Amino acid sequence: MKWTFIVALVLSCLVGMLVTAIFYEIPFASASPEQLSPTDRVSEDQVLIFPDYILINIKNAKWASFADTNSMDPLIDKGANALQVIPQTPTEIQVGDVISYQHEGDRIIHRVVYIGEDEQGWYCIVKGDNNKVSDPGKVRFDKIDRVLFGVLY
Question: Considering the entire predicted model, what is its pTM?
Answer without folding.
Answer: 0.76
